[in-house]
Design a protein that fits this description.
The complex is a heterodimer of chains A (about 280) and B (about 325). By secondary structure, chain A is an all-alpha fold. Chain A is built from 13 helices and no strands. Helices cover about 75% and strands about 0% of the residues of chain A. Chain B has about 325 residues and is mainly α. Chain B has 2 domains: about 35 residues, no CATH class; about 230 residues, MetI-like (MetI-like fold, Orthogonal Bundle), CATH 1.10.3720.10. Chain B is globular and about 80 Å long. The chains are: A mainly alpha (about 280), B mainly alpha (about 325). At the A-B interface, helix 1, helix 3, helix 4, helix 5 and helix 6 of A face helix 2, helix 3, helix 5, helix 6 and helix 7 of B.
Chain lengths: ~280, ~325
């Protein structure tokens, strides 16, 4: 009886796995099509399919690298993403610390106005106008500042929820020892925020790195285009040369894919627990 | 769980259970020398000046454009206007007369609702299936989550390839089934289908991961006890799993509705809002009006868009209060 049940369970588990793998084909097939097409000739790529290339053409990748201005795009994206992420993490942790510990009418008001920023969309033209007035329209620094303001609310709220769980006695002990303000933040609070800061780092890096809409408004000179803009302009130029477009997709997705396969556990939990855990 | 947008707590980050039982203003009884209740002391330990720099970046680059900046919607602002003149509601009048606004709003709403239901439904099914002792479940999770790490831009390019009228995989499938080739991105209905398919393809794994995390938080004893009591599978799902999942479900609904209402990348890459304005969404409309030098109208659309998002968030908050009271 038990043996029969066990066998039944094993069959059930295998059938379930087969069904789920069939569903997973919806995800896998497009990915494989892109991978094989990226190595094909123009003629072969005229019709997208799963067949392997007659002779793999790695020269497609060389063309994309030179024509697609990939290196320039990566450099610009790195500058903007690194600046914005550092600014977001620093600002948000300071705000989370002061706004949750110091409860006055002023800080409650500040916290409420930051919460409103969670849902507000990008205000495109007024921002363009503002940056023009300040004389910084089209610079990478301005783009990073706009990202900082955009993504600050989410990270601040996330870190606030975490600071609230830190016992106040910790602060009190430090205060007695004469450690307050910036020193209290630097030496006591910040080291304890490492885990949520890692989550915030993963999320913000992905958001800023992938964003395509805001630079479309704020960067006019091609020399400062971030990677998504370079990719998009390449797509416009080589519209139906699918072998190039596919090679471009592979190049752009390779870093994130490698990171994902190497550290998927922390990436998945970083992308989900940041939102779920309370 | 309590939640508020604009309030002290927020749906993304419900405060931990233990904290909620402590009344505000509570302080440990033994530290009389340093009382957190003592305002002078608190002020010295948590100086407000530390917030000045970060908060002003937020105010200048986000609050300023989305409040003062919106006054530009009530002017004749365009590259050709020599002086800015107050024109009242003129930029808003066309919203009621021109069809493009209604089409963009309808497309955006359809996209937001369909993708939200698709992602939440499929994500839930996948999570329930992968929460069992199924074979190769770790590899399956890796595969299903993978599209979520791809950029929306890449997903847009991918689906412009798959649904290309000439070379695309979709039309080869149609031909194999005996149909004639479809111009997927050339018509409103089929293009909307491609948008929704693309977004559900990209984010279902993400919803699945959130549900899986919540499912793993259900105490095993509860399940075992209910099985011993002879509860049916449906009863167990309805009375144990679902209540535990509710916060995660609400989170997925909220985040994917907000994402759906803001959709830009996918649409802009696949159709750019065309043919004509058939597949325009609110975000692409704002950009296209900018491209057509209709600066004041674009800002007006942006203002209405902001109001729609804020009122949606407030409505959601009320809904959430009603569904999560018990937690």
């Amino acid at each position: 009886m038990i043996a029969q049940n066990r066998a039944e369970g094993r069959i059930k588990r295998s059938v379930g796995a087969v069904l789920l793998w069939l569903c997973a084909l919806v995800i896998l097939i497009p990915l494989v099509v892109v991978l094989v097409t990226s190595l094909k000739s123009l003629k072969e790529a005229g019709s997208l399919n799963l067949l392997p290339p007659a002779a793999p053409l790695f020269s497609n990748y060389v063309t994309v690298f030179t024509e697609g201005r990939i290196v320039r795009g990566i450099c610009n994206s790195l500058i903007v993403t690194a600046t914005a992420t550092v600014l977001i993490l620093l600002s948000a942790s300071v705000l989370a610390f002061i706004l949750t510990r110091r409860r006055t009418r002023m800080t409650v008001f500040m916290e409420k106005s930051i919460t409103l920023g969670l849902v507000a969309p990008f205000t495109a033209l007024p921002t363009v106008m503002l940056l023009k007035t300040l004389g910084i329209l089209g610079t990478r620094g301005a783009l990073a500042l706009v990202y900082t303001a955009m993504f600050l609310p989410f990270t601040t709220m996330m870190l606030s929820a975490f600071v609230k769980t830190l016992p106040r006695e910790l602060d009190e002990a430090a205060i007695i020892d004469g450690c307050s303000g910036l020193a209290l933040f630097q030496r006591i609070i910040l080291p304890l925020l490492t885990t949520p800061l890692m989550t915030a780092f993963v999320l913000n890096t992905m958001w800023v790195w992938n964003d395509f809409m805001i630079p479309l408004y704020l960067l006019n000179s091609a020399a400062r285009w971030t990677l998504p803009l370079s990719v998009f302009s390449f797509f416009g130029k080589y519209n139906h040369s699918w072998q190039y477009i596919c090679a471009n997709m592979v190049i752009v997705s390779a870093p994130v894919t490698i990171l994902y396969l190497a550290g998927q556990r922390s990436i998945i939990s970083g992308m989900t627990t940041g939102a779920v855990k309370g | 769980m309590t939640a508020a947008i604009g309030g002290e707590q927020c749906i993304f980050f419900p405060s931990p259970r233990s904290e909620r039982s402590i009344p505000s203003g509570w302080s440990p009884p033994y530290c009389d020398s340093v009382r957190p209740g003592n305002l002078a002391n608190v002020k010295a330990a948590y100086p407000l000046w530390m917030t000045i720099l970060p908060f002003s970046v937020y105010v200048v680059f986000l609050v300023l454009p989305s409040t003062a900046g919106f006054t530009l919607a009530f002017t004749n602002w365009s590259p050709y206007a020599e002086t800015l003149r107050f024109t009242g509601l003129q930029s808003f009048v066309s919203m009621f007369t021109e069809k493009v606004y209604a089409v963009a709003l309808a497309n955006t709403l359809i996209f937001a609702v369909v993708t939200t239901l698709g992602k939440a439904g499929l994500g839930l099914i996948l999570a329930l299936a992968l929460n069992t002792a199924i074979r190769s479940r770790n590899l399956l999770r890796t595969v299903y989550f993978y599209p979520a790490v791809l950029s929306p831009l890449v997903v847009g390019l991918l689906f412009s390839a798959i649904f290309d009228a000439k070379a695309g995989l979709a039309n080869q499938l149609v031909a194999a089934l005996g149909g004639s080739p479809v111009s997927w991105l050339g018509g409103r209905g089929t293009a909307l289908f491609v948008f929704n398919f693309g977004e559900i393809w990209r984010s279902t794994g993400y919803a699945m991961a959130i549900f899986l995390a919540a499912l793993q938080g259900i105490p095993v004893e509860l399940r075992e006890a209910s099985m011993m009591d002879g509860a049916s599978a449906w009863r167990r799902f309805h009375s144990i799993t679902l209540p535990y999942l509710m916060p995660a479900i609400n989170l997925v609904l909220l985040t994917s509705m907000l994402f759906g209402l803001k959709i830009f990348d996918l649409v802009y890459i696949l159709t750019g809002g065309g043919p004509g304005y058939q597949t325009e969404t609110i975000s692409t409309l704002i950009l296209n009006q900018f491209g057509q030098d209709m600066y004041a109208q674009s800002t007006a659309t942006n203002l209405v868009f902001t109001l729609i998002l804020v009122s949606f968030a407030l409505a959601f908050q009320a809904y959430q209060r009603a569904t999560e009271v018990t937690a």
